[in-house]
Design a protein that fits this description.
The complex is a heterodimer. By secondary structure, chain A is mainly beta. In chain A, strands 2, 4, 5, 6, 9, 10 and 11 form a seven-stranded mixed beta sheet that branches. A four-stranded antiparallel beta sheet of chain A has the order 1-3-8-7, with no helix packed on it. In chain A, a hairpin with a 6-residue loop joins strand 5 and strand 6. Chain A is globular. By secondary structure, chain B is mostly beta strands. Helix content of chain B is 0%, strand content 47%. Chain B contains no helices and nine strands. A five-stranded mixed beta sheet of chain B has the order 1-9-8-3-4, with no helix packed on it. A four-stranded antiparallel beta sheet of chain B has the order 2-7-6-5, with no helix packed on it. The chains are: A mainly beta, B mainly beta. At the A-B interface, strand 4, strand 5, strand 9 and strand 10 of A face strand 3 and strand 4 of B.
């Protein structure tokens, strides 16, 4: 039981390049989330998916797109990376968004955009 | 959503109880208090949550004051591996919104 798995762990991009961050969970959770964490700051929600087939914007969605591929997988895409997107990206899942079940996080993808 | 206030940092001697306070004076009746911690640069780890009653699990205890305006996370016998940033979060029931602040940096000293 791996929990939430994120790939890759590290990535360096040049400005304007694109990439997709992958996330998969094996806990049969309905809801999945993408957060970013900048140095010395708390986590900020980029997008979330309350259930398979739905996605919604969080606090800081600009510059990102997401796909809920199936119940297990939720990917985050940067179409044209910018230095301001240098951050650590965390994927999380929970049983649902409307119950009080806690979030379970992956160990992050560390992205540097030069 | 209620905001939380936590001390920036705290130290605790190994083997002693670590008591981490959190102020959430604007909390409303349907908002839960959650605690997470982040060790080094790993993903945040869920510790415990509660609405109004005190809660205990294998990791910690959560004490919520009767007026619900503050809470304390207690790690009963802190170890060096408990050194981390601890986040107190208030979440409205029925929503996806977790508002992460900057947390308390707990250092457990040998």
């Amino acid at each position: 039981n791996a929990g939430v798995t994120q790939t890759p762990k590290f990535q360096v991009l040049k400005t304007g390049q694109s990439m997709t961050l992958q996330c998969a969970q094996d806990m049969n959770h309905n809801s999945m989330y993408w957060y970013r964490q900048d140095p010395g700051m708390g986590l900020r929600l980029i997008y979330y998916s309350a259930s398979e087939g739905t996605t919604d914007k969080g606090e800081v969605p600009n510059g990102y797109n997401v796909s809920r591929l199936n119940k297990r997988e939720f990917s985050l895409r940067l179409e044209s990376a910018a230095p301001s997107q240098t951050s650590v990206y965390f994927c999380a899942s929970s049983r649902g968004t409307t119950d009080n079940s806690p979030l379970h996080f992956g160990n992050g993808t560390r992205l540097t955009v030069t | 959503d209620a905001k939380t206030t936590q001390p920036t940092s705290m130290d605790c001697a190994e083997g002693r109880a670590a008591n981490l306070p959190c102020n959430h004076s604007t909390i409303s009746g349907n908002e839960y208090v959650y605690w997470y911690r982040q060790i080094h640069s790993q993903g945040p780890q869920y510790i415990i949550h509660g609405l109004k009653n005190n809660e205990t699990n294998e990791m910690a205890s959560l004490i919520i004051t009767e007026d619900r305006k503050s809470s304390t996370l207690i790690l009963p016998h802190a170890t060096l591996r408990d050194t981390a940033v601890y986040y107190c979060i208030v979440r409205t029931a029925g929503t996806y919104k977790y508002i992460f602040g900057t947390g308390t940096r707990l250092k457990v000293l040998a």
